[in-house]
Please model this.
Amino acid sequence: MSSLGAVLAALAFASMTTVAPIAARELAGFRVPESVKVEPEGATLTLIGAHVRTYLFRDVSLFALYAAERPASFDALIASSAPKRVAVTILRPTFTAERFRAGWREQFDAVLSEAERARFSKEIAEFIGTFETLNRGETITFDFTPGKGVRFSIRGEPKRVIDNDEFAAALLGVWMGPRSVDPELRRKLLGAETN
Model:
């Protein structure tokens, strides 16, 4: 092999052995993994989109959506038989349980019809009642599995399972549905762009 051929072969080998996919990205000073493994299903999900929500020019929370594949639309996300995850990292110094509960009541009122709120009244009460005070950097994960509803964990500790797929879809709709409380959040999570 010529010396030029040897150099090119060495460069090709080096590129194959040293170039690795990016394992995470950083937003608002926090690591956002490119993929997560959801237990007990054992499914590996890929980061679809992420977004930092702000209020009065201050960062409030970092959202990340994980799914088996990029959905073509919100309806496609809901229709998928694969698990999905939404991870929410707190960016405020403290987010009290009272603030969480009041905020969720407002969001459900804004997105769900009166009939839907009545139909999901038990699930909404269970959901809202589970929240507790969180500090900067602490995360809530919402795992959506068709046939099993939604389960969520706070600081990695399982807190509650709400075994109702219709409620799970309504919850995803708060963030990404046609009446999303934050159209920019909807756009970024569904993967149009990540900030």
Notes: Residues 67 and 84 are 5 Å apart (CA to CA).
